[in-house]
Write a structure and sequence with these properties.
3 helices; 3 strands; alpha+beta; about 80 residues; three-stranded mixed sheet
């Protein structure tokens, strides 16, 4: 009986952790975003990939804002 209670508690904890992770993914980024839809449609790099690149290069940093701009005919993500 103790074992079944432990299994139930473990399963409940795993479900709670999974739902928290899923909620974070569905909720989206917590930073400010300035991404004009016209430019997003043209972009070959997604916002998520740009954010991953920034996180990899600055592991202790935190993104506060992301902007997508057309600079001289090139689309550039600016992460602050």
């Amino acid at each position: 009986m103790v074992r079944s209670i432990m299994q139930t508690l473990f399963a409940a904890g795993a479900i709670a952790a999974a739902s928290t992770t899923l909620a974070a993914q569905v909720q989206g980024p917590t930073y400010k975003r300035d991404l004009p839809s016209k430019l997003v449609k043209q972009a070959t790099v997604s916002e998520a990939n740009a954010a991953k690149t920034v996180a990899a290069r600055l592991p202790n940093g935190r993104i506060q804002a992301v902007e997508l701009e057309n600079e001289g005919g090139r689309l550039i993500y600016f992460c602050k």
